[in-house]
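Aim 2, interim progress. The first record below pairs a target sequence with its structure tokens.
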Amino acid sequence: MAEDVRTMGSTKGIREFEGVFEKPHCMVLDSAYCSMGRMIGFKACKEAGVDYYDAMVLLELVPEYGLTKDDVDAYEKKLRNESFTGEQLRSDPVFAKLTEAFDKAVDIALAKGPCLIHDRVAKEEVIAKGYSCVSAMTYAVDMKAKIVKARTSPLYKDVKDDEAVVKGIHEEDQIRINWHRAHSDTEWGDLNTYDIALNTDVFGLDYSAKILAEVMKAE
């Protein structure tokens, strides 16, 4: 039976109705490949006046590990075409070293102040470190548009066959799936597990960034 909200009784004093959103210390952003996640996250941080971190920026915080983007890229080739369990990855010495470096970098980033972190850490890990956190996911469903976006990357700009580009898009997402499994009990991309899920086909780059920025600078 439908309820008429105009005649509903007062909810005053009922705790479950009175939750108040507070600005989070950190937003963790996952993004499907070609959903413009990194660009949205970076733009949102500029609008909100908070720091932005992704794999490259995080590694710059821990030079003592001697790890570079090339090291991450080399390892991620292993993650492109095969599904791994979190346990399998955590038992891999190379993965363990990368994770140790990223975890140390995340500690440094969180201590610096409010921030958005793209991939490399899960919401529950941030909360376990003693910080408030909101999780977000950007995704897109228009494959034709994703193919066009993929071809702006050096990885796919010279790939003429659309099917090969689609295969690459799925492989890029598989990398993200594998990383996430090693850090969370949730499944990467399951929209029910995120606080915010944005279809960037609908909201676009600028408005998606505006939405995330508003969350990060909420009073």
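The second target in this work package is listed in the same format:
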Amino acid sequence: MILPYRSKNILSYSEDPPYKDFPVLRRAPLCTPGKAQKGSVTVEAALAMPLFFFAVVALCYLSEVMAIRTSIRSGLQYAGKAAAESAYERPLLLSGSIEQDLVKAVGEERLDRSIVENGSSGVRCERSYMSMSTGIMELRADYSVYLPLPVFGRVVVPMEESCRVKGWTGYERAGFLAEDEETVYITETGMVYHRDPHCNYLELSIRMVPAGEIEHLRNESQGKYYPCESCSPEGAGGGVYITDHGDRYHGSLDCSGLKRTVYAVPLSEAVGKGACSKCG
């Protein structure tokens, strides 16, 4: 039997090449056009999603901080109005009353479940005071908020709110001097005149502190407090009264050391008095 012979080009490959049983190694393309690489979406999501959720959590806490600040500021104004009504009968600002009125206005439950450190008991108004001469009250509320961020841990940020309220103690009549005359402020026994009616030597920031803590307290000049010679507060059991710039503690609000009578006079009438070292 004779098989037909079919001629082939010597340059063409045979139908069954002799190396067909050997594996052929090919280099995979780095990027196939039109097709996404496997695993790239997973990597991008692993990097982007935590940053996205962190930004959302930070925005939520920022909104809560702004809401807390607005609430405490409104409560401080409410407490200031209540203190202004009683300023004529009681020319003294008690920090405990301010704190109670503030918590009452904001809501004790609202503060306890908020991000305020220690809840309603974490809002302190100890730096609030009232000027005995002008009746102006400086109200300050100090507190801290905590931010439980998942990356930085528990972050505590101190906050402060303040406002100024005029007590209902009357008003000062303006215009009783000539336009070219300067008004200065003097006291009955003072040897200097003041250009600022809110000078620290004129405004007494009276506050009550426990008698047992007086040994550890210091004034603004880091000086100790000594008993007043006029009211003899040694036997005071509950609390004593101090000022930020004084060096005496008193057992009664009626003590003469806690009173200031300030007069607004022309500079020409302050003859023989020197200028205040702070405001003169």
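Residues 7-13 have pLDDT under 50 and may be disordered. This observation will shape the mutagenesis plan for the next reporting period.
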